[in-house]
Design goal:
alpha/beta; Cobalt-precorrin-4 Transmethylase, domain 1; Methyltransferase, Cobalt-precorrin-4 Transmethylase, Domain 2; five-stranded parallel β-sheet; five-stranded mixed β-sheet; binds S-adenosylmethionine
């Protein structure tokens, strides 16, 4: 039977992949990977020799039809991204929707994603939260920040190393400077660390410590 498997992959530590994800990647007829070179390291590590094709934000629209055609015959496809769960600030949504519209079965395996460990280890309320992904870089940024300034749930943002300071500064302008924040960096990697404090303190901290890596920001509204 045809099926699209959405398969989460490690966000840093190669050990963070489930046994079932490895089985699915081995038994699929085809793996769609965001960057075939990035994923080759993981696939090689687990002796996975399934054929791999690229599927990323620049070709996903173009490839949808041919992928759905493959899935019309007896074919299993595993979708992976560079890190974490496809569809979470990564390509995936379009293909999942197209499969559902074409009555192709979809199964997302549980597994790594960056926001869950960051949220849980933040120490901020995680019974209800709002996942915000990346803030818009230019157009719509101010509008989004204004909207969020009245949010009552814990907020989770993704950020890249070269914009972390700008984003923390912007947050300090739209939220009370005493609001609690947690900034996790390089989760599951060698230099993993989490800064916890007020927004104001986080700005001071990252002004002093120009750090590299990938970041998850968790912000408590009050
Ligand atoms: N699909 C991924 C997921 O499920 O989390 C997210 C992919 S998104 C393109 C990349 C962003 O995720 C980074 O800029 C960072 O905000 C966050 N991220 C990914 N890996 C991370 C890590 N090891 N530590 C901290 N943040 C990470």
């Amino acid at each position: 039977m045809s099926k699209l498997f959405v398969v989460p992959t490690p966000i840093g530590n190669l050990g963070d992949i489930t046994l079932r994800s490895i089985e699915v990647l081995k038994s699929a007829d085809l793996i769609l990977a965001e960057d075939t070179r990035t994923s080759s390291k993981l696939l090689k590590h687990y002796d996975i020799d399934t054929p791999v094709e690229s599927f990323h934000m620049h070709n996903e629209h173009k490839k949808l039809e041919s992928i759905i055609n493959k899935l019309r015959s007896d074919f299993e496809i595993a979708l992976i991204s560079d890190a974490g769960t496809p569809g979470i600030s990564d390509p995936g949504f379009l293909l999942v929707r197209e499969c559902i519209n074409n009555e192709v079965e979809v199964e997302c395996l549980p597994g790594p994603t960056a926001f869950v460990p960051a949220l849980v280890s933040s120490g901020l309320p995680c019974d209800r939260f709002s996942f915000e992904g990346f803030l818009p870089v230019k157009k719509g940024r101010t509008k989004r920040l204004k909207e969020l300034s009245t949010e009552t749930k814990t907020m989770v943002f993704y950020e890249s190393p070269h914009r972390i300071l700008k984003t923390l500064n912007d947050l300090s302008n739209y939220f009370e400077v005493e609001s609690q924040i947690s900034v996790s960096r390089e989760l599951t990697k060698l230099y993993e660390e989490t800064f916890r404090g007020t927004i104001k303190e986080s700005v001071e901290h990252f002004e002093k410590n120009k750090t590299k890596g990938e970041f998850v920001i968790v912000l408590s509204p009050k």
